User: Fold these one by one.
Assistant:
Number 1:
Amino acid sequence: MTEKLEIICPDTEDEWDEWTGVPVATLFQETGLTPGASEVVFTGADGYYKQLPLEFVLQNHIFLAYQMNGQALPRDRGYPLRLVVPGNDGADWPRWIVKIEVKPALTAFSNSSGIIRQLSRNIPPPVADSVPACW
């Protein structure tokens, strides 16, 4: 999916970019969810995480971006994956996603999580002063 969205960052000029990625709902359709699942936690390589209600994720076009403006996602923008949450501040779009957890349980997602972790080994640790909080 590709969407042109405004990323809103406090103390920074807002900008519109075209984000391309895979809807999280599609991942969950492919992997399956166990009954009782109610929350999703997305964690970046920098330790920042975003916890969202599962229902919100499934109904609001939340997706994992791997491209921005038709090109591979730059490292400072979250390579290899960035969570895109339309309508939320950029600070709510975690970068460098390496782990996805569905609580209380998710069926057969551990292999995909392992692949994301393997990819994340190529991500240099962010330097707090060099990368804006939500950019």
Number 2:
Amino acid sequence: MLGFASNGLAFVVFGTVAFSIVVSVLFLVTRGSDSLYDQIGQGGLSKESDYEAHGGTPGAPAARSEQEQEIRQMLRARSDRRVSRGEPALDVDAEVAKLLRDAQASAEHDPALVAEVRQLVEARNERRVRQGKQALDVESEVARTLSELDS
């Protein structure tokens, strides 16, 4: 009786392995050059499709326009929160111009240089806070330092 059970089990195991090999080979042979797995990450949520929608590059005019609209929306929301707390409203147009100018200035520099300058500014801020002084705006200090390096 034990011999029959092991023969039956061996038949099931080898049959399953053989079937999976046949199915795997069939999938490899019938797989087209543009399978679903090759398309993963190419949907509407990936970065490449966003850039392609705006002319293929992040610096395209349509991309800059969209960036300005998103910054303006963020600043309006920030200004509305400030007003609801009783603080003065932000000058949205001036803030948008400042942020876009800073972004353009940092885009002109090597990313490694910008990262290094940012680390230095953050370290300087930590020292200022430890000394009881007011912390500086990191983005404006990075832009100022990079403009000093340019001149």
Number 3:
Amino acid sequence: MPKISVKSSSPRVAFLLSQVGAHSAARYAERIAPLNLKPSHTGILRILGEGPGLTQQALCDLLGMFPSRLVGLLDELQKMKLVERRESPNDRRTYALHLTKAGRDTLSKLEEVSEQVQDDLCAALNAKERALLSELLTRIVKQQQITPAVHPGYRQTGGTCGNESSEKKC
């Protein structure tokens, strides 16, 4: 199949960011598929690795997603023995979330995959350019009031925890 070339004047930054973001997300999903994980699983594992004992409600609020969707993802992670729910020491009606040993081991593998994807994606940049790109993107995240270190895809699953009366509670 012949490669089609589309010529355009200078593409806008928003389009380039979207293009690179979609490409990066697809490469990441391909790389984690052998681990039987979805990208939505990996973000939860990373957050719990940094904040063990987080309640389902707090995680739901951080991610900004429907409680039933989060509960489903946590059920999947628990079935894979990567996450465990423990009664909260402060409130027995809530659960504190923790990574299991297998979850911590998987998180370590995911960090390696993330580094590989980043290295592949940024191969055309030297270390100084990578640092500058990271700094500039971080400034955009802050200015746009995007929750740092939380993929906006979680919010696309709808709503925020506690605001959906018909949804299952975290």
Number 4:
Amino acid sequence: MQPFAGVRILDFTQVFAGPFGCYQLALLGADVVKIERPGGDDMRRGPPNKDWSARNLGTGFMGINSNKRCLVLDLTKPKAIEIVHRLAAKADVVMENFRPGVMDKLGIGYDALTAINPKLIYCAISGFGQNGPERTTAAYDGKIQAMSGLMSVTGHPEMGPTRAGFAVCDAIAGMTAAFAVSSALYQRTHTGRGQLVDVAMLDATLSFLTTYVTDYTIGGHVQGQLGNRAQSRLPTADVFKCKGGHILLAVNNEKQFIALAKAIGRPDLPKDPRFVDWPARLANDAALRAIIEDVLAEADDKTWEARLTEADVPCSRVWTIPEIVAHPQLAHRDVLQRVETAYGPQTFVGSGFRLAHGGGRIDRAPALPGAHAEEILEEAGYGEAEITALRRDGAI
């Protein structure tokens, strides 16, 4: 049995952070009912693939919405609000990522739904949380990357701050929400009580930047942009040029430095006065880099990756998405899972961890808007005539 088998989640979230969090729980067996507005989630029509967007199944949307059932509701209709109330009465969790106050105005906020179901866990994801001076300020991943300090430590000093290559703050908020909901569900087994789970993107991102924050609050040091160098700031924990490409070295201790020196045919380096210890290597950073890159220029990135890995030197060339997707390590661990769909077999990323039993799996491909309306409403007690009337009135 999967960890969240039998747990019903009403998913009002949209775009990335919320749907990603709900997806983590759906992978682990939760029955996630995705409630979308007419026309569906904006991610259904996102770039870059126009063909899939035309089907209302944008590839970005599909990446985080497997295992969910879908119901379309026009929440401006009183009958649609009645449906939410009825579904909430039997739900375990509600997750939403509207601005604070929006769900309350609709009559389906925390107070309204917990009055119906006191055991309900209500998770609200927003940019800044449900209180504080910024509570109603609009927030997007880029804004939080910039505001949290993340961009101030990302990029090259000579080029200025840089965004991460994916929506990292959205992903952090979604994963934090999944963890928070899991915590609340576990606590409910002891207390029998539901509660409000308040997830702010800014708070969640700061929790991931904790070492940089304490560098300042305790040590008084403000971290700057290190380019591709590790937080250790060591000269051999960086990206180096090689023939026709680049390779990242993660050489952070003496044993690894000695192994690197031998692997590149320079066993003399650890005895060179310029490189005899880490302070000396930092003081002679440019000279050490020049020596390493002169040797690396003799072969390509794949060759050096193989040689250095064999010598137990932590490293990696810069892999592309198509390359890593084909890596046998992922196949061995069943990270990428294939699902049969109406459009043929499709491949998705599953859980980022493995359980000895009852772990994450993908059983259902992402659905079209409203694909499960009848079965969801029948489970809630609606009859065929009532469902027909709801369709006629535009509530569903």
